[in-house]
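Before a colleague's protein record goes any further, I have to sign it off. Thanks in advance; the entry in question is below:
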Amino acid sequence: MDHTAAGEDLPGDGARRSGHLEARSLSRRWCHGWRVVVATSVAVVLGGTCFVAIRYMFREHPGPKSLSVATKAFKGTASISTGGKLTYEPPAEGVYALNGQGTETISFPPSSQRDGAVMPASVTYVANGCWQWHVDYNVAHWEEYDFCPDATQLLLDANRNSQSWDFGAVTVNNLARFTCPPATVVLPEDPKPAQTLEWSCTGTNTAAPGRSSAATTALIEGVVALRIGRSVVPTVHELQRITLKGGQRGSIIEDWWFTAASGLPVRMDRHITIKSSSPIGTITYREAGSWQITSLQPRT
């Protein structure tokens, strides 16, 4: 006969039940802890992603560079040695005001910048009788050219372009440097309508690996009278078509108006499309804009 009453524990049953209960409790605590760890990790990842997204959404866009700031920063030289009478006498040193507009866009991460409605530009005398033309499109984007007058022509020695992009959590700086062969003629002695000039410059860009070449075909449109302030000034209108190959590829179309007396740029219209390869695919940069100088008398 079974002397054990219904529901009565046998010896050792209590210990086993207690062990099972403790194991289940430990299992629940472990699972709860695992969920907490996963939830915390997801929160950290999502929180970091949200932080980057918020920084990107509320990033600052570059404003215009002021004339007063550019004038205070300007450091010119007293004179330039020309070695005698030149067809294109160097323009006056100092800071010039440009009225204009323009936009720059990049496909990824999608972003854009705007040029100032008033942009400072400067002429600075540099070595070997050359002078530098520098334009500040805004506080994050500038471009400059080294022009060198010889006895009868205006030569192009080099070109540089710098731009910064603020993506919120990181800022990317991009600098392009191009040099041109000796005796690269940008303005001939006696420009004639339909006259064609050709040159090719090479350089690098910190945003793309390898070297790039910029092959230019320039067409003289004619000598045009352009109103600058209260004066009417003879200018040489030149259309430049540039094909970019190598580390970067694309096309640049620029209309330039140079004064017939010195070669000072007084107006420019531009349309630019450049493509660069990246680990995530092709990134496209576009730029379009125009400007015109307001006076031939610079600030110093």
Observations:
- The two ends are 119 Å apart (CA to CA).
